[in-house]
Amino acid sequence: xxxxxxxxxxxxxxxxxxxxxxxxxxxxxxxxxxxxxxxxxxxxxxxxxxxxxxxxxxxxxxxxxxxxxxxxxxxxxxxxxxxxxxxxxxxxxxxxxxxxxxxxxxxxxxxxxxxxxxxxxxxxxxxxxxxxxxxxxxxxxxxxxxxxxxxxxxxxxxxxxxxxxxxxxxxxxxxxxxxxxxxxxxxxxxxxxxxxxxxxxxxxxxxxxxxxxxxxxxxxxxxxx
Length: 225
Known about the structure:
The protein is an alpha+beta fold. The protein has one domain. It contains 9 helices and 4 strands. It has a 4-stranded antiparallel β-sheet with strand order 1-2-3-4. Helix 1 runs antiparallel to helix 6, helix 5 crosses helix 7 and helix 6 crosses helix 7.
């Protein structure tokens, strides 16, 4: 059986891909409108180390820079850049990727009618989690803790946020309630947009390819083409 919680996704201007067990399953739209499937072995680079390194560097920067008046313009500029950088097409593929994952995690068959009804929000989205960590890092710095304690606390929070991606105990559920509003705002206004049929089709085919390789019962449930 496939553990869908271990699947991570990514999207671009013309593709959706899913990573599972160090393999990448990518479906893209060619210039002539046809769909192209690529399956290749690829070790995931954006893992827990990324979640540790990025916020820790950011935390060190905040501890060194005590002129916090410069931070607000930096954040505003970052959000504006992200908003402009991610085209509507990328955001639509991103939303389709989330919908497919949500459908499978909710035990639904991989069919268009099931996928389109799913929310575009995904609590395990890595981009949203990184933003939450950076916001928490900023709060820790504003409190004025001892530098060593601040960095240590930041690493602990990174670890807990990483578990937020995977765990399902009571503490994790509470953490999700706290972090979900920020994640939803980020995804709704910056990283996702209502997908069209072609975006759903690409995301669905990429996932069908993954399922076909890892499930013995795939022929009974899905038509892989």
